Amino acid sequence: MQVRNRRTAAWSLEAAPWSAAKASAHVLDRLHEWGYREADTAAAALTDLLVRTAAADGGRRVSVHLADQNRQALIVALSHQPGLAVADNRVLPQLTGLGAVSCGTDTADDGRRVWAVLDL
């Protein structure tokens, strides 16, 4: 995955039950550094669901990637669990319900990517 021409941040976390809360704290801290405070609840809820979804794939770690552009945040969680079947789309309505203006999931050689775009 390549993200260019915008601010980015990334964290690698153990795929553990507490990782979703830790990832949400990292994302909120970085969004605050970038001057965004209006969407804390939605950003935390989206990050939590993205990380829990990626961790459920059974890998040893999860990575979280954040980027901003034009007052929108892209939040991505990657499961790092290779060999998964075609991506499961059941999480998409939940992401939309939490405030994502766009979201998706795909499976690649390095695991499943689940992502959401949030208006800030």
Quick tags:
alpha+beta; five-stranded antiparallel β-sheet; 3 helices
Describe the structure.
This protein is α+β, with helices and mostly antiparallel strands and 120 residues long. The protein contains three helices and five strands. The chain has a five-stranded antiparallel beta sheet with strand order 1-2-3-5-4. A hairpin with a 2-residue loop joins strand 2 and strand 3. Helix 1 runs antiparallel to helix 2.
Radius of gyration in whole Å, from Cα? 13 Å
Shape: globular
Give the structural class.
alpha+beta
Q: Main β-sheet: number of strands, strand sense, barrel status?
A: 5 strands, antiparallel
* Strand content bin: 25-35%
pLDDT averaged over residues: 91
Name the helicity range: 25-40%
Question: How many strand segments?
Answer: 5
